[in-house]
Amino acid sequence: MNALPKAVRPPSPDRRLIVSIHDVSPAFADPIERLAEMIGAILGGPRFAMLVVPDHWGAAPLDRTPAFARRLREWADAGVEMFLHGWFHRDTSAHSSTAASMKARYMTAGEGEFLGLSADEAEYRMRAGRDMVEQAIGGPVAGFIAPAWLYGPGARSALKACDFALAEDHFRVWRPANNAVVARGPVVTWASRSPARTASSLVVAAAARTLPDWLPTLRVAVHPGDVTKESLMTSIDRTIRCLAGRRTVARYADLLPGAAMSEGEGRHEDR
Q1: 2-6, 24-28, 62-66, 208-212: least confident range
Q2: Span 198-211, pLDDT tens digits
Q3: CB 248 within 8 A of CB 16
Q4: In terms of CATH architecture, what is 12-268?
Q5: H/E/C letters for each residue in the chain?
Q6: Model's pTM, two decimal places?
């Protein structure tokens, strides 16, 4: 007697998956297009976020690349959430503290732009960047996410002044207006800068595919550099497919008040 096939387990409604593409810029138009096409095919449409850099390293201004700006608007109109992702994405600050210097040196390749900025300078870049991105997409951004997920005191102060709906770092998503944390847990991401970093990111992604779904919200982030290594692209494909099969594909907006939240999320926390 043939065994009956196992029933397909539907995605859990109280376990969410949020996927984002970082460093969206005219400087990386082709890699971004490839990532968007792949992720859209896996998730069944443009059910992901893009983190847009207004002028990547001062060499790719969004307001001077109309073709890419039109493409951004097409994605936004189709439902892709658009976040402001810094201004230059390059760290040019002279860090006064040892902790900030260590973060700038070891956690990113000189791209923690908002780690050492004053509140005034951070606010200026946030407002100018938001204006440029919103002009391109024809609507409001969903929030602000600092390059390399690194925020200094000035950036955190500017976040409140600019009234962004959401912000995110390595370990949480929060509402700058009142510091309410709406999701917790590390981001699953990949690294292409060195063989060692690539290898470790592949191990972490493999673990994310096999570990129990204890986090209510799991975030996955990809970068243009990922397309340079097929091992990373294969891992990204497998990981998103696996997690989307077990979780409900969600948007960052689903974390805001009015959307269903799981126990342990939505608490306030001093930052």
Answers
A1: 2-6
A2: 999 999 999 999 99
A3: yes
A4: Alpha-Beta Barrel (3.20)
A5: CCCCCCCCCCCEEEEEEEEEEEEECHHHHHHHHHHHHHHHHHHCCCCCEEEECCEHHHCCEHHHCHHHHHHHHHHHHHCCEEEECCCCCCCCCCCCCHHHHHHHHHCCCCCCCCCCCCHHHHHHHHHHHHHHHHHHHCCCCCCEECHHHCCCHHHHHHHHHHCCCCEECCCEEEECCCCEEEEECCEECCCCCCHHHHHHHHHHHHHHHHCCCCCCEEEEEECHHHHHCHHHHHHHHHHHHHHHHHEEECCHHHHCCCCCCCCCCCEECCC
A6: 0.87
Closest alpha carbon to 261 in 191, 182, 170, 174: 182
